[in-house]
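Field: COMPLEX_INPUT
Field: COMPONENT_COUNT = two
Field: RESIDUE_TOTAL = 1176
Field: MODE = joint
Values follow.
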Amino acid sequence: MYRAPVQDMKFALKSVQNDRPHLAGALPDEEMIDVILTEAGKLAGDVIAPLNHEADKAGGAKRLDDGTVQTPNGFVDAFSQLAEGGWTSMEAAEAFGGQEMPLALSSCVNEMWQASNMAFSLCHLLTQGLISALEHSANEAQQNIFIPPMVEGRWTGTMNLTEPQAGTDLAAIKTKAVKNGDHYLISGQKIYITYGEHDMAENIVHLVLARTPDAPEGHKGISVFLVPKFHINEDGSLGAQNDVHCVSIEKKLGIKGSPTAVLQYGDNGGAVGYLVGEENQGLAIMFGMMNHARFNVGLQGLALSDRALQQALSYADVRVQGTPLGREPKSPIIHHPDVTRLLGQMKAESEAMRALMIYGAALLDEAEGGDEAVSRRADFMIPIIKGWLTEQSLIMTSHNVQIHGGMGFIEETGAAQHYRDARILPIYEGTTAIQSNDLLFRKTMRDEAAEAKALLAEIATDAAQATGHDNEAIAQLAANLSLKVAEAEAGIHSLMARQNNPREIAASGVSYLMMLGTLTGGWMLLRQGLHAAEALALPEADTAFLHNKLASLRLFNALSLPQVSAHAETIMLAGTATESLNIAEWLA
Amino acid sequence: MYRAPVQDMKFALKSVQNDRPHLAGALPDEEMIDVILTEAGKLAGDVIAPLNHEADKAGGAKRLDDGTVQTPNGFVDAFSQLAEGGWTSMEAAEAFGGQEMPLALSSCVNEMWQASNMAFSLCHLLTQGLISALEHSANEAQQNIFIPPMVEGRWTGTMNLTEPQAGTDLAAIKTKAVKNGDHYLISGQKIYITYGEHDMAENIVHLVLARTPDAPEGHKGISVFLVPKFHINEDGSLGAQNDVHCVSIEKKLGIKGSPTAVLQYGDNGGAVGYLVGEENQGLAIMFGMMNHARFNVGLQGLALSDRALQQALSYADVRVQGTPLGREPKSPIIHHPDVTRLLGQMKAESEAMRALMIYGAALLDEAEGGDEAVSRRADFMIPIIKGWLTEQSLIMTSHNVQIHGGMGFIEETGAAQHYRDARILPIYEGTTAIQSNDLLFRKTMRDEAAEAKALLAEIATDAAQATGHDNEAIAQLAANLSLKVAEAEAGIHSLMARQNNPREIAASGVSYLMMLGTLTGGWMLLRQGLHAAEALALPEADTAFLHNKLASLRLFNALSLPQVSAHAETIMLAGTATESLNIAEWLA
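Field: COMPLEX_OUTPUT
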C-alpha cells in the first residue's frame, strides 16, 4: 500500500517558498496544488502501486522470441492512465502541448510515481528527460516531430549511452554514425538501455551517443542522434521498424519490471538517425541535461525511502512480538524503543530529503531565468542531492527489512524488493564517487570553495538566528548546526590546503559529499522547524503534524547530524591512509 | 573465485596468542595449523565455492511434490567431501569421535566454509551447534545415539524455535508435547527451519522447542525435544519416517541454496520426541548454546565481508574505465582514489573483524575452564561480535556492488548475491536490536558497567603504551584510540546516569553496540600493528604483508574510528529525541 505524503509535500513547498520567493511566483495557487497532488496521489496509490510487487514476483519484464518485450501485467493500462490524466505533459513547454509546471511541483508528483512503482515509472522519467533534452538542443523541426507524441504519452524516450567498455567513461564509446544524405546510419551495440524495448507506447525514441568516422578521439568526438524505433512518415504516421533491435534484457537485482535492454543497431546496414545539434557536440548536450537527470535519480532515492518508511510503519503498527519496555502486553512492536528509533530516523531523514529535493527543484527552476548565483548554487547542490539521497535510500530500505525481522527476508512481504530496487540508485547517472568528484573538483576546488563557503555561511547565519529559539527542538538543532558548520569548514580548509595533491583529496570525496548532504538536510529541517513554529501559532494549525515535525528536528539532530563530525574527521585522514596502501604488493 | 585468507588467519591467531597465552596452549603446532588451514582452504576454494553462484542462479533448493527437498547441484557431493575430510568432526569431543580443536582454529576453518558458500555451509554450522548443545545438555544415552552420526557427517541437525507468532519472542511458542511412555508426542508448526529438509544426509535431527500440557505460561514453560526425521532402531539403523513433514520452503531474498522449511509436526498423532534435560528448562538450554550460535553468525558476517572484498579486488584489478588521477591511461579502476579507498576500508575492517572473531573464539575456549573474568568478557563480546560483524557485512557487500558499477546490479556477476545473502545476518539468531538490548541491559547495566569499563580501561592502557611508538601508523592509531575511549566512556556514563529510564537508553542501544564494535575493532588492529612491527624486524619477514597490515591501521583510523564519535554523540541524544515522537498522532 502506498499513500502519497501530500501533507508533507505541501508543507515543504511552503517552507521553501519562505526563502525562495521566486518559487511562490511560479507555483499555481494552493487550491490547484492540492488538487494536483491529491489526484496524482490517487493514481499512484490506487493504480500504479498495486502493480509493483506483483511485477517483481512474476519475474519482471519478458523478452519474447520475436525481440519484443512484454511489460508486467497492468503496466500498459497504467501507462495509458498516466497519459489520459495529462500527467505526461506536466513539465513540457506549452508550445508542445505541455503544462509548464515548475519542477518543484512536478517533482512532488514524480516522487509519487517513483515511490509507488519505480520499475514502471522509470519509463516516464526517462521520457521527461528526453523531452527536456530536445527542448534545449534539438532544432525546431525535430522538436515538432518528436516532442508532442511524448508529451501525449503515445511515444516514450530512452538514453543510449553505455557500451560494454564505456560506462562511467563515455570517451570510450565506439558506436558509429555515417552521414547518408539528410540522416546518419547508426551501427553498434548499446547496453543497460532502460525501457529500450517495451509494449506501452506506439514508438520509442532513442537518444544515441555515437561517433562519426572522422571524429576526434575521446570526449571531443561524440555526437548525439535521435533514432526512432519505427520510421516516421511525413504525415506523422509510423512506418517500418528501423534497424535497431533488442537482443536481450538483463536479469537484474531489482527494478525487474523495467526492461533493461541490449540494443543492436545496424545489423542491416544501419539505423536511420537524426543528428541533434552539431557533430562532436554530444557531450555538451548530454551535460546540459545532466543536472535534471541526476536530480531525478536523487528524487528516486527519496521516493524509495518514503515507500520503505510507509511499509515499515504499517508493519510495526500491527506486528506483536514481546512486550515493549514500559508498555502494555500485546502492544505492537512500534513501541519497542529501537523500532521507534528506526522509524523516527526514517521519518526525519525522509523529510529532510524531501525538503532538499524541493529546494533543489526550486533552484533549477529559478536558474532557468539566468541568475548566475542561483545557477552556481543549483550546480553545487545537484551532486549532493544525487549522492546523498541515493546512498540514504540503501539505509532506509535496509531499515525496513530490519523492522520486518525474519519476514523481511521472505520475498512475499515486499520489503526485500525495495531493498533490491534501491541498489541501482547510487550507481546509475554517475556513481556516488562520480558525484563526489564533481562536487569536490568542479564545484569546490575550481572556485576556491567560494560556493561551498557561501552555502556554509548561509547555514551558519540561519543557525545563529535560531539559536536560543523558544522552541527547544529548534534551539537544540540550531546550536548543534553551528558546531557542525564549523567542523565542515575545517574539513573544507583541509581539502583546499591539499589542492595540489588531487589523488589525496579525491579519497575524501565521498565523505565530503555525505558530510554536506547531512548538513544541508539538517539545515532544511531547521527551516521547516521555524515554519512549523509559526504555523503552530495559527488557529487552524494541525498540531499533531507540526509537533511531530518538530520531533523530526530532534531525531535528525540525534541520529543523523553526528555523522557530520565523523565525515569531517575522515576528510582529514582518508587521503594519506589510502595512499599508504601498496596496491601492487597487495595484489601480488 | 575464493581464496582462503590463510596468511591473515595465521597472523591473527599469533597476535591473539600474544595477549591470551591460554590459546597458545590449546592450539596444535604451527605446522599442523598450516596444514589444516591450507587443506580446508583448498576444499573451500576448489569444491565448495564454485557451487555458490550456480546454486543461486538455478533458483536454489527445491521442494518436490513428495515433500522431499532437493539441494542444488553439487551440494550432496560437497557435503560428502566435508565429511570424508574429517571437517565435520573438528569441534566435537573425542569421546564422540571428534577432534576437540579449539574454537579459535575451527572458526578460521568455519570462516572458509561460510565465505565460500554460506547457503551450503549453514547446514554444517547448525549441526555443530546441535552437537555442542547435546554435549552440554543431553543425557549420555542421547549423546551416544545422536552425536556420533552427526560428527561423522551422516546426519545433520536443525534448530526449531520460530513459529508464525513467535520469532524474537519465544515465550509465545505454542507447539505441544504430550508425554507418552519414554517419549513425547509433538504437534505444531515450526517456520524458518534452515535445512529442515534436504537430501545431503541419511537422517535429520530436529531440536524442537515445545510446551507440555500443564507447563506454565511464557518463558518458564518451554521444553526442548530431540525429534529425528526417521525413527532410530535399537541397533542404530533407521526406521520409518517420524510424523514430521516439510510442507513448504520459503522464497527468500538470499541464501537460496539453503532450504528454509516450514515443518509440520503431528499430523498423524504426533512426532516422537525425546526430552532433553528436564521439562520447562528449554530456554535455559537454548541460552546455553546461544553464545556459540551468535558467535557463528558474527563469523558469517566476517566471511561474507571477506568474500565481497576478494571479488571487488579481483574486479577492480582488471576493469578499465577512465584514467585514474595521476596514473597511466588503461590503468584499472583499482587506482581510482575512491576505489582504493573503498577496498582499503574493506581490507582494514575485514581484518579487524577477523581479529575480533578470533579474540572472541579464544575467550569462549578459555571460558570453558571456568574462569569467571574470562566468561564475563566472553559474554560481553558476543553481542558485539554478532551485531557489529553482521551489520558490517551489509556495508561490505554493498561496497562490492558499488565497485562493480552497473555490472554489480546484474545478477550474472554474483556481486548482488553476496549483498542479498548478507541481509539475513543482522536478523537471525537475534536482531541487532536484541543484541544491543543484551549488551546494554544484561551485560552493562546489571554490573554497573564494570565489565564495560574494564574493557575500555584495557584498550586505554594499550593505547597509552603505544602512543609515541616509532611506527607512525601505530602511534597515530594509538593516540586516536585514547581520544575515542574517552568519548566512549562519556557515552557509558550518560547511559548509566539514565538507568532508571530504560526506554530512553534502549533507544541508544544499537549506537552503543556499534560504538563498541568499532572501538574494539580498532583495538584489535592496534595489537596486530604492534605484532607486525615486531615481525618486521625478523629476517624472514614478509614485508609486503606487514606493510599493508600497518596500512590497515591507518585506514581503520581514518575511515572507521571516526564513527565512534558519532555514536557517542547519538547515545547522548537518541533517547529524548525518540521519546519526543508522538506515535499515536503519527499513525492517526
